[in-house]
Specification:
Layout lengths: L1 H10 L2 H11 L4 E2 H8 L3 H13 L3 E6 L2 E6 L5 H11 L3 H19 L13
Antiparallel strand pairs: 1-3, 2-3
Helix pairs in contact: 1-4, 3-4, 3-6
Length: 122
């Protein structure tokens, strides 16, 4: 029962749901990607991401001064399918997808998070 409560709490907040959906569509996001996407300070982003991590929804990896996040490989695919179906018609989803992909593209092109020269993970 604790698992469902922590997942519900984690995804029950708008910004956490938005970043979780963004992670469903991307390989990984740096803390700076998430901050620009949600327009929040790094400390606030870290708090949101910590809640998602504690719920077992995401993994994190520190590389130098940056923290990178990705979907936890243990997340039940049925949960992901339910989430996708639940927000399929949400108006914000397409706007958010475009925004996160543009942020990631710009950050990678400009080496904003030290992306160049590191190994691709997954």
């Amino acid at each position: 029962m604790e698992s469902i409560l922590s997942i519900s709490k984690a995804l029950g907040e708008k910004n956490r749901l938005r970043v979780f959906l963004a992670l469903m569509d991307t390989e990984e996001l740096c803390v700076c990607d998430v901050g620009d996407f949600l327009e929040l300070a790094p400390a606030t982003v870290s708090r949101h991401m910590s809640i998602l991590h504690q719920a077992g929804l995401i993994e994190s990896e520190k590389r130098g001064r940056w923290v990178y996040y990705r979907m936890d490989t243990e997340v039940d695919p049925r949960l992901l399918e339910w989430i996708r179906n639940s927000v399929r018609d949400a108006g914000f989803l397409m706007k958010d997808r475009s925004k996160i992909h543009e942020i990631v593209r710009l950050h990678r092109e400009n080496d904003h998070c030290g992306f160049r020269g590191r190994k691709k993970t997954v």
